[in-house]
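Format notes (please read before filing issues)

Several people have asked whether sequences and structure tokens are stored in separate files. They are not. Every record keeps both together, in the order shown below: the sequence lines, then the token lines. Line labels are part of the format and must not be stripped during preprocessing.
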Amino acid sequence: MSDIASSGRANSGQERLDSAFDAEVVKGLRLGFRARVIALGGIAVWIAIQTPYPDFLILWFELGVFVFLGWVPYQYYRRGHRGSWPQFLFSAGDMALLVFVLTIPNPTAEVFYPEAFQLRFGNQIYFFLLIAVSVFYYRPRTVI
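Then the structure lines:
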């Protein structure tokens, strides 16, 4: 009889522990989403200062996609879905979009540069910003 009672308490304790970890994951995702929005807002202001009028609109659209890619995992986990594969999927989506944004020329720009020349502008610093913000989102193993 005591085995049944102790296993019931153990299950209840494990459920509380799992619930506490799940709540912390959601809090971390919320913090990461806020940090992402603040960082991307700063980048949006910088782009508006640095880039002429019609050219920065496409870049703002791309920043909006980054915000959306940060909002999706937060909503996914907030609604109770669990699993490690979405973390890899969302972080891979971030990196794929960042590579696309940094290597493909802006279609609205008046001056056309080849794809290989795009890497000479020093935009690789944005990789570090995205990695720094993704530390709030995911486990270190996923970020690495």
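For reference, the curators noted about this record: The chain has one domain: 2-143. The mean pLDDT is 78.
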